[in-house]
Amino acid sequence: MTEGRIPRQGKVQNWSQLVANGRTPRHQEMRAIVLDLFEMALEAVDPGACVGRHITRAEDALRIGDRQFSLGEIQRIVIVGGGKASAAMAAKVVEILPEVRMVGAISVPNSLENLPTLPSAIQVFPSAHPVPDENSQAAALAILDLVENATSQDLVIALFSGGASALLVAPAPPVTLGDLQEMNRVLLRCGASIQEFNTVRKHVSIFKGGNVARRCAHAPLASLVISDVIGNPLDVIASGPTVPDESTFGDCLEIVEKYEIADRLPVSVRERLAAGARGEIPETPKAGDSCFDTTTTLLAGSVADAACTIKTYAQDAGWPCQYVTSQFQGEARDQGARFWSTFSLAGLHTGCNIFLHSGELTVTIAGRGTGGRNQEMLLAAASKVPPVPPVVVLSAGMDGIEGNSPAAGAMIDNGTIARAKKARLSPQEFLDQNDSYHFFEFIGDAVVTGLTGTNVNDLTITIAWGNSTDD
Fold first, then answer.
1. Domains of the chain
2. Which of 50, 94, 208, 211 minimizes the number of CB atoms within 10 Å of its CB?
């Protein structure tokens, strides 16, 4: 295993003795601690665990959130959904209800390995992310067909997680799949937030923005969502296919104007947005629409579960842990430049101190490099690491892959810049090229997990060692 990689074996060491003996830990020990904390965070947002907290059964009674169903009155369960965690979520439903007849369709990233075994009647579509492909469209159309034909004797369970917006696409005519692909590329490069991105996506789709609920007119619908969006707005996560949509065509035009991308968007997209803003095309379904009368959508998991697990571990260990913000957003390099001012390293408790940031940053791409938002933030923060106390920062996407890199994120510490100088690397040159991954790969600080099978907001873990003496 190379430096900076995480074993993903679910094994977290007991660091209490290191803390108890009062010495400042070695560089590798601090890195091991922060990697173990990240491992704990990943286990906390395991998709099966998230679903199991919200779907339970007692003999013939099935409870989903506050709703109860009699299994004796259900002919079929229709499982639909998509996202990086959707296969594992579906597998948990099957585990809870092994004897119930099921059909369905889900869309998963085509790079996801070791998929759980699902009944053959649940079709799995390996699809592209972040730019959709033909399977993304085929999956969405299959889901629309399933929910449209579901009856009152069926129960539709929809399972969505991060990535579903790209993994499930059904363009509204005259927009084509090719147009959607180009639109996605433009929005990915312009620095739009996920809320802005999904606002536009919803208004060029017959799937997103409440349209799955609109199609599911004759069957009860229960949705479970694992959030990868700051604040967990249900109408933004996976582009809100089963909930009322608060955004409008007019909002879309404001976003296009804000980022000055009108001339880069396909003509069909521009024309649809303009026609919708003029009232010539019906809006997405809003709150109060009757299509939501038999629909329940639950937040099954979020980055708060990961942060809570770390805080509980820290409390048991006697380590101070501060959740600095759950709203860590904005341009990655700007946030990196001011990262150390977001919390105080003064007056640290003796031993390990933990600081947590969660959210999702954005990157405006100007160079031709390889990287991601967490890596770019850390690259901007690396030159400002204070000389004391000893610190290590890990920042990563919980899905295991960010941007166009193979890494989940990276780590920095007091020695990052020294190692870069020794390797004759210029952090600013890599930053100028949006090439953060290669910078961290060269010095052994890339964090590589492979796809984790889940996705919530990004997590930044900082540990700082206070008031200790070296042995």
1. 16-45+303-466 (3.40.1480.10), 47-170+205-247+284-301 (3.40.50.10180)
2. 94
